Amino acid sequence: MRAIVYKGPNEVSVETVPDPRIESPTDAIVRITSAGICGSDLHMYEGRTPAPEDMRFGHENMGVVEQVGGAVNEIHVGDRVVMPFNIACGTCFNCTRGFTSACLVVNPEGVSGGYGYAGMGPYPGGQAEFLRVPFADFNCLKLPGEPGDELEDDFLLLSDVFPTGYHGAELAGVGPGDTVAVFGAGPVGLLAAYSSMLRGAAEVYVIDGIAERLAKAEDIGAIAIDFTRGEPCQQIRKIRGGNPLVRGALRPGEEKMSGVMCGIDAVGYQARRFDNPDKENPIQVIEELVHVVNPTGRIGIVGVYFPEDPGGVDRAAKKGQFTLPLGDIFDKGLSIGMGQTPVKKYNAYLRDLIIAGRAKPSFIVSHRLGLDDAPAAYEKFDSRTDGYTKVVLKPAGGMAAASAGT
Question: Mind giving me the DSSP string for 334-388?
């Protein structure tokens, strides 16, 4: 079969590799109809997360079941399915408590497993024509419809980015009437903002420095904040303080709550300095969240932070060590949640929102391409050029440079 293969920093190629096969009675083989290129793939692509050469990328995968092992009972040949990016056994101590992002069985190298990702086990990725799915009854989410229909891209996003955005809102405790600041208008940030609205937030601010991404945030009803025009927390306070309805609802003393109640980091360790976007400041977003989130507020961190980063800005950053404003966090009584998304916690519910027409996450998709276009797509997505917001690969053939909704 053909697959995307990592060849070294800033280089992937399309190569012929062995077809996957059933290795355990609980396996299934899925013919891939759509696979996403994720911002997390770029960490390996850039060499910021060490990955072995000839590794096959791709943890956002959906398709049609072609073959099942003898112990697979609930998923059948011909089923249309999408797989969480984290692989889980479903029965270990962590899985039975809902932490499928920390399965104790599937990865001999550590806690948590996934497709095509460094340190997450021996599982080739799905940016390919076929994929082996371990523990298929547990890891395959069945979908209605037919491959290539109008819900294909929406369902694909159940593999990672939609649940991850929703997880950010969950960690930040977003509820009806809340005010929210989301840092990052990439796919996860946009869907964190979208999820916050689904959960009933009253105001959602999205902070980024790229005009095209901020325009998408405005399209879904969020308030765009361009960090190149000044410190985001000050911009947000100015907007809220300038609203006579907000001011008119305040009782004495409540002017101290001039920020937001919920904050979401959808950027991670490659955050850019607000005053000089050409340079990184890995804790820029966390520091700003501590400033803008009100006392007793909540912060959710779904942007990735790694224990090792060869490209870190200093010796500590290379080891994943950062100085945090713990004094301010304690003084304000902020609650912080973080970590990898347990996709199985959310994917069935989000699928049903899509089926009911209540959610349409595919608004983030900018390009639908064939496998042969993947090397160029990686380069453009990494440079954030030509409107590359979210790329979906179609192994059977793609629509080059298709815009969202087409």
Answer: -EEEE----GGGTHHHHHHHHHTTS--GGGG--EEE-GGGHHHHHHHHHHT-TT-
Instruction: Give the C-alpha separation, 208 to 376, whole Å.
Output: 24
Q: pLDDT (tens digit, 0 to 9) for every residue of the chain, 406 residues total?
A: 999 999 999 999 999 999 999 999 999 999 999 999 998 899 899 988 888 889 999 999 999 999 999 999 999 999 999 999 999 999 999 999 999 999 999 999 899 999 999 889 999 999 999 999 999 999 999 999 999 999 999 999 999 999 999 999 999 999 999 999 999 999 999 999 999 999 999 999 999 999 999 999 999 999 999 999 999 999 999 999 999 999 999 999 999 999 999 999 999 999 999 999 889 999 999 999 999 999 999 999 999 998 888 889 999 999 999 999 999 999 999 999 999 999 999 999 999 999 999 999 999 999 999 999 999 999 999 988 788 889 999 998 543 333 333 3
CATH topology of domain 165-338: Rossmann fold (3.40.50)
- CATH homologous superfamily for 2-160+343-393? Medium-chain alcohol dehydrogenases, catalytic domain (3.90.180.10)
pTM equals 0.95
Domain boundaries, the chain: 2-160+343-393, 165-338
Q: Give which of 262, 125, 96 is closest to 180, Cα–Cα.
A: 262
Q: Which residues fall within 8 angstroms of residue 183, CB to CB, at 6 or more apart?
A: 189, 207, 208, 232, 263, 264, 265, 266, 267, 271, 285, 288, 289, 303
Query: Tokens 């325009």 map to which residue?
Result: 215
Q: How many residues does the chain have?
A: 406
In whole angstroms, how far apart are CA 151 and each of 34, 127, 351?
A: 11, 19, 10
Gap between the Cα atoms of 63 and 395, Å rounded = 10
CB neighbours of 140 closer than 8 A, spacing ≥ 6?
28, 30, 65, 75, 79, 81, 82, 83, 133
Count of Cβ atoms closer than 10 Å to residue 399 Cβ:
13
Judge contact between 300 and 168, C-beta under 8 A: yes
